[in-house]
Amino acid sequence: MIEVEGLSKRFGKTQAVAGLSFRVEPGTITGFLGPNGAGKSTTLRSILGLVHPDAGSATVLGVPYRQLDRPLHRVGAVLEASEVHPGRSGRNHLRVQAAAAGLPASRVAEVLALVELSAAAKRRVKGYSLGMRQRLGLATALLGNPDVLVLDEPANGLDPAGIRWLRDLLRSLAAEGRTILVSSHVLSEVAQTVDRVVIIHRGALVQQASIADVLAGTQGATRVRTPDARLHELLAGQGAAVTTLEDGALAVDLPPEKVGEVAAANGIVLHELTIERATLEEVFLELTGGETTQ
Amino acid sequence: MSALVRAELIKIRTTRGWWAYLVVLVLLTGIAVAGEVGSAERAQRSTADFQLGLVETIGVAVLLAIILGITIITTEFRHGTVTPTFLATPHREQVIAAKAIAAVVVAIGFALLSLLVVLAVALPWFAIVGAEWNLGGGDAATRVAEQLLATVLWALMGIAVGALVQSQVAALVGTLIWIFVGEALLLGFFGLLNLDGARGYLPFQALDGADGTGGGELLSYWPAVAASLAWIAVIGAAGTERTRRRDIT
Predict the structure, then answer these.
(1) Which member of B7, B75, B248 has the closest CB to residue A51?
(2) ipTM of the assembly?
(3) Statement: residue A293 has pLDDT above 50
(4) Mean per-residue pLDDT, B109-135
(5) Each residue of A124-145: b (16+ CB within 10 Å) or e?
(6) Every domain range in chain A assigned CATH 3.40.50.300
(7) Contact A80 B83 (CB under 8 A)
């Protein structure tokens, strides 16, 4: 559906993308993840024919974007929320795109209603909040009712309610069988929505897998809580790394079975014994070299 | 292509700049024609020559035409709207062609509006002061047609410059500096080299010669039109190539 093969792009001294390859399967929501500056936007813009790669190729629906017949009918994209003339109303911005794509003017009102922006449609974009601009961007992407959506950081600038709204919208769009590639530098924004993830760092692929595999591959710690101070030493005596957490519980790098055995053998009362999975954010940090995601 | 031209025309009409163009055009023409009629001798007003001069005041439309041409390309880069534009039409040369056609349509509209202002000011004034309209319809029509073509050429030059330069401020200021400093220096330079014949071929000398109003050192009408078209083609081709190659980031 979307195929990126050996993509490289350099801007001056910056190697934005370095030999990146990945595939987005039809009918999935794929999270395109990486810290800021990882090369996500350059990759998406190469896929959309806006940036000319130095090497490699990117195809959508089997062909380079520029060779698509009536591209807005096939692929919808939201790149930056600011790419609208500030003096034009949201409705007129959509009228321009609809005219250029040969779409009927009636689609404008439909997509405005879909993103819940009808009330502000006649106001100039200058007065829109960032969240409203993101909605306008989504409306633009949906004008041609495309099968493929490419969204660059669509959650930027949205408040928590807006993020939930976006998540629900993406889910319902995916349920209609669309293929969605959505980038983010904050994994938790998309973790509940995506089926698969493509993680990149410094322009190169770090991991491409289903979200379930990414989670399963991460090592969890065992969390144990007890009023008995002896457990800490006993576990350390087993060669385990034991740390005391803020709430007084212990984090141990042994499986819970082993912790339970040690406690039972010494008559220690346990108040809690659970597996604590690494959060997606921690996985993300680990995979991308522990650099800050901000 | 007609869909693309329609999209470009919607773009032009849906910002406040559009109203500024119309207001400035009406004011400039109105002031120019009122100045001419007001300062003319009573007898002079009834001469065909003077009345031809009044028709020529619609030449102010060329200024707005080149500004419009430059602006409708550079505003896309300035506001980043070039991204959705090229997503809708990945063949960028088609976008430039559509903008050129839209600019031509609007430029002709500017010149006709300007003509309306000339008539709206001059005719009632003539009626009040008892001047006679002696300019022949044929002469008037010829001069209007020449002015319309000139306005179209200036609009196309604006498109060519906008496509090549892409930065709005640089394109607008650079064009002004080129006209009033660059070409003025070259005119003097050509004079020193005894290349007086080459002067008329400078881009804006050619455009100036292509409005039919004539002038001492300018090319005659059709050579001026041809030289203007050649400059537009060269600058436009370079601009189109630059636009096609540019990374939109």
Answers:
(1) B248
(2) 0.90
(3) no
(4) 91
(5) bbeebeebbbbbbbbbbbbbbe
(6) 2-216
(7) yes
pLDDT mean over B114-142:
89
A74 touches chain B (CB under 8 A): no
A280, with CB counted inside 10 A (0-12, 13-18, 19+), is buried
Task: Search chain A and give the residue with CA nearest B91.
Answer: A66
Please, what's the b/e burial string for B231-242 (b: 16 or more CB within 10 A of its CB; e: otherwise)? bbeebbeebbee
Q: How far is B4 from chain A (nearest CA, A)?
A: 5
Q: How far is A209 from chain B (nearest CA, A)?
A: 28
Asked if A284 has any chain B CB less than 8 Å from its own CB, the reply is no
Q: Do A42 and B91 touch (CB under 8 A)?
A: no
- Is the confidence at residue A87, as pLDDT, over 80? yes
Is the minimum CB–CB distance between B134 and chain A shorter than 8 Å? Answer: no
Q: Which residues pair with A205 in a beta bridge?
A: A200
Residue B192 vs residue A215, higher pLDDT: B192
**Is domain A2-216 in CATH 3.40.50.300, yes or no?**
yes
Measured in whole angstroms, how far is the alpha carbon of residue A257 from the centre of its chain? Answer: 35
pLDDT at A274: 85
> Each residue of B35-74: pLDDT tens digit?
999 988 888 888 888 999 999 999 999 999 999 999 999 9
Q: How many of the other CB atoms lie within 10 Å of CB of A73?
A: 16
Q: Please give the Cα distance from B162 to B67 (Å, whole number).
A: 9
CATH 3.30.70.980 in chain A: give the residue spans: 221-276
Q: Give SS3 for A13.
A: coil
The pTM score is: 0.87
Interface contact A52, partner B, CB < 8 A? yes
User: What class is the A221-276 domain?
Assistant: alpha beta
B164-212 pLDDT, tens digit each = 999 999 999 999 999 999 998 998 888 888 888 888 899 999 999 888 7
- A76: alpha, beta or left? (left if phi > 0; alpha if psi -120 to 50): beta
